[in-house]
């Protein structure tokens, strides 16, 4: 199985449940969701004119539209070749779930890694049983019922107080089915959104996600 990889790099996970954990990010190219506040719009389209070699991809140190088609064995080989110390893999995008991630997640697990997927929940999630699934539902973007039920963590972006009504609708589906971690995340470090998130987290005993990587200026 080949995947269009936009970039691979080692860093600290800055969001949600695994915030602060050393992680290797595998960012996939392609996204049909197109959120207006998206900070990775360069991953939306998968044009052949932006295709590069795996060697060029590994050397890449800035986020842009270039990507490389890579099979699972080569992905794992290059992770080991870099001698990165992190054992947690974050598969993100774009929207990674437009692809079948079972091959990638099982392959990584067989090599001693834990996997996490960051998805909008608008596409069918195909991955290993042990993969940690972070679903970030977006208003008016048709979050799938199956994605909500599969989520280990719901990381919900908030701009204004009215946004919380959609989250309540999603949580009504979960009910008491399982212990799903709920995070509120202010969009684009907006101060008013942050205030809303903090107040709501305190009232409802949820957790706050503040994208620490953007504050400490790392990828």
Automatic annotation (TrEMBL):
This is 7-carboxy-7-deazaguanine synthase. Keywords: 4Fe-4S, Iron, Iron-sulfur, Lyase, Magnesium, Metal-binding, Queuosine biosynthesis, S-adenosyl-L-methionine. It comes from Buchnera aphidicola (Lipaphis pseudobrassicae). It catalyses: 6-carboxy-5,6,7,8-tetrahydropterin + H(+) = 7-carboxy-7-carbaguanine + NH4(+). InterPro entries: 7-CO-7-deazaguanine_synth-like, Aldolase_TIM, rSAM, rSAM_QueE_proteobac, rSAM_sf. Mg(2+) binds at residue 40. GO terms for biological process: tRNA queuosine(34) biosynthetic process. Pathway: Purine metabolism; 7-cyano-7-deazaguanine biosynthesis. The gene is queE. Its cofactor is S-adenosyl-L-methionine; [4Fe-4S] cluster; Mg(2+). Belongs to the radical SAM superfamily. 7-carboxy-7-deazaguanine synthase family. The keyword 4Fe-4S applies. Catalyzes the complex heterocyclic radical-mediated conversion of 6-carboxy-5,6,7,8-tetrahydropterin (CPH4) to 7-carboxy-7-deazaguanine (CDG), a step common to the biosynthetic pathways of all 7-deazapurine-containing compounds. Its EC number is 4.3.99.3. It is an enzyme of class 4 (lyase). GO terms for molecular function: 4 iron, 4 sulfur cluster binding; carbon-nitrogen lyase activity; magnesium ion binding; S-adenosyl-L-methionine binding. Substrate binds at residues 12-14, 27, 92. Residues 18-219 form the Radical SAM core domain. S-adenosyl-L-methionine binds at residues 37-39, 94, 136-138. [4Fe-4S] cluster binds at residues 31, 35, 38. Homodimer.
């Amino acid at each position: 199985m080949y995947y269009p990889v936009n970039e691979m790099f080692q860093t600290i996970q800055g969001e949600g449940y695994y915030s602060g954990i050393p992680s290797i990010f595998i960012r996939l190219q392609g996204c049909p969701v197109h959120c207006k506040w998206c900070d990775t719009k360069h991953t939306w389209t998968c044009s052949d004119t932006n295709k590069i070699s795996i060697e060029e991809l590994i050397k890449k140190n800035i986020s842009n539209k270039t990507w490389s088609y890579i099979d699972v064995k080569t992905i794992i080989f290059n992770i080991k070749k870099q001698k990165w110390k992190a054992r947690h893999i974050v598969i993100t995008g774009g929207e990674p779930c437009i692809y079948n991630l079972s091959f990638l997640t099982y392959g990584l697990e067989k090599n001693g890694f834990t996997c996490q997927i960051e998805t909008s929940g608008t596409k069918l999630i195909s991955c290993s049983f042990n993969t940690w699934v972070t679903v970030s539902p977006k208003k008016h973007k048709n979050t799938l019922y199956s994605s909500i039920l599969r989520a280990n963590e719901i990381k919900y972006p908030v701009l204004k107080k009215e946004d919380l009504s959609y989250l309540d609708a999603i949580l009504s589906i979960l009910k008491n089915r399982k212990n799903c971690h709920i995070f509120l995340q202010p969009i684009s470090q907006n101060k008013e959104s942050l205030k809303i998130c903090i107040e709501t987290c305190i009232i409802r005993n949820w957790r706050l996600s503040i994208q620490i990587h953007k504050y400490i200026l790392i990828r």
